[in-house]
Amino acid sequence: MDNFISLLYFLTKSYETEIKTFGFNTNFLEANVINITLLLLGLIYILKNFLGSTLIGRQQKVLTAIQESEKRLQEASIRLEEAEKQLAQTQMIVTQITDDAKQTAKKVREAILGQGKLDIEKLTVAGKNSIANAEQQIKKQIQKQITALAIQRVTLQLKTKIKPEMQSRIIDTNIMQLKYKL
């Protein structure tokens, strides 16, 4: 504060001594302070309406832009909430579908395994039946061959051992037996 007072004192002293230096002129009429003040007041009054209307227009535009932005923000928030709800529902549906698919896969696997066991049992029974049939056929063929060989052997033995006299005796005996039966 002391510096300010010293500065004012210095400026007023230099004016009083009429030294042409820079200083503070206390005579308002000579310094045109009134003219400058009137000029500034006139400019403020004239420009106030012009600048005021321009600033009011800009303010209205900014307020309108802010309101529209807030409205879009609310709409976006609503859409976001709806999208989140749909996402949650979709996730629930996906989870349910996944669970259903797992259960279905388990049932199908069990059905396939069960059917496979049945098929194996059927094949086993069919194989056993085939083997049994093959054994029966082989037994029949062996019996036929044994019978054929036995007949052939007996025939050979009879041809070699039975003489025509013995054949006629056997025929006569058989004829006699037939007579008695009748």
TrEMBL record:
Record key words, sorted: ATP synthesis, CF(0), Coiled coil, Hydrogen ion transport, Ion transport, Membrane, Plastid, Transmembrane, Transmembrane helix, Transport
Positions in coiled-coil regions: 66-100
Major location (coarse): membrane
Record's GO cellular component terms: proton-transporting ATP synthase complex
InterPro entries: ATP_synth_b/b'su_bac/chlpt
Pfam families: ATP-synt_B
Positions of transmembrane segments: 33-51
Membrane topology: Single-pass membrane protein
Localization terms from the record: Membrane
GO BP terms in the entry: proton motive force-driven ATP synthesis
Similarity remark: Belongs to the ATPase B chain family.
Xref: PANTHER family: ATP SYNTHASE SUBUNIT B, CHLOROPLASTIC
Entry function: F(1)F(0) ATP synthase produces ATP from ADP in the presence of a proton or sodium gradient. F-type ATPases consist of two structural domains, F(1) containing the extramembraneous catalytic core and F(0) containing the membrane proton channel, linked together by a central stalk and a peripheral stalk. During catalysis, ATP synthesis in the catalytic domain of F(1) is coupled via a rotary mechanism of the central stalk subunits to proton translocation.
Protein name according to UniProt: ATP synthase CF0 subunit I
Organism: Lympha mucosa
Phylogenetic lineage: Eukaryota, Rhodophyta, Florideophyceae, Nemaliophycidae, Batrachospermales
Gene: atpF
